[in-house]
Amino acid sequence: MTRRIYFLALLILTLSVFACSNSKPTQEKEKKESLQERWSVEKAQQWGEKQPWLRGANFNPSTAINQLETWQAESFDPETIDKELGWAEDIGLNCMRVYLHHLAWKVDKDGFKKRMSKYLEIADSHSVKTIFVFFDDCWNATYQAGKQPDPKPGVHNSGWVRDPGTLLDEKPELMTSLETYVKDVLTNFKDDERIVMWDLYNEPGNNKLGNKSMPLLKNVFEWAWEVRPSQPLSVGVWNHGLSDLNKFQLENSDIITYHNYEGPEKHQAAIDSLKQLGRPMVCTEYMARRNNSLFTNIMPILARENVGAINWGLVDGKSNTKYAWDEPISDGSEPELWFHEIFRKDGTPYKQEEVDLIKSLTQGK
């Protein structure tokens, strides 16, 4: 999903995390312990021991161009969700990462939560757990409720929208509404066993926002701690250049999540570095065929290391993520090599050998 390739700076970043953590004043440490904000390493490990190997995809139904089209009442599509999660179940996937959007909640708070419940009911019927994502700094900065735009032919994620995007700059008071949104959703689902974890913020600092994303990043952790759901909280690291954001994310996440769209050597190096933190790990984005991040060379590593494996994309659809980030095909014709996705719209695999591999890795797990 990101335009920038993530590669963690090995132990340098890890050591800086420990150094920063150990330098905090005693008073602040005591405050954190008394509030029971971040899980201890022991609690995180206990959670990890109870989980199966998590493997799945970033999912929005093929009939939705973005998060709003997924969740608005007029376009919510349980039939397609049921069908496509059935295909996921058939090849052994057991976890989907699904984006929310505060505007869909704002327009219809009760209906939004009912649709979340319906989604969870469908996913659970296919033995699929869910990772919900709150905020996002990727792609289009502005958005509106109602009918969403049609896809631009051959353009990757042409209709995907940020949350909250530039609206937070125009209306700083929106922060109060975002707090209500996060707490409302978390309170409603804080003990729902169908939700395996909460991803509080996707790729903070993307689109050259950098540390401008820090206030919302800090706030969403604070809001989530006030509710303190039974599921773990995390924000994935994705760009080694965002050192301040990376430190904060790694210091405050219950479990470690990350994105990596590179080949096996660099991906393994990232795993080796992050393992030093001693917490369960989930790769919440990988698999971009053009970049040599493949099911065939990355998923076996994740299985061996017991790192959750959540690739980008399940079914080819309105998001157009079979096209590469920066290589549009203006006539909308089939790319020579799909960038993301596992299935075509009719449920047949893009590459049968990939599906065979996935089945072999997930069988019995």
UniProtKB/TrEMBL annotation:
InterPro entries: GH. Keywords: Signal. Gene3D superfamilies: Glycosidases. It comes from the Bacteria. This is Uncharacterized protein. Residues 1-19 form the signal peptide. It comes from Mariniphaga anaerophila.
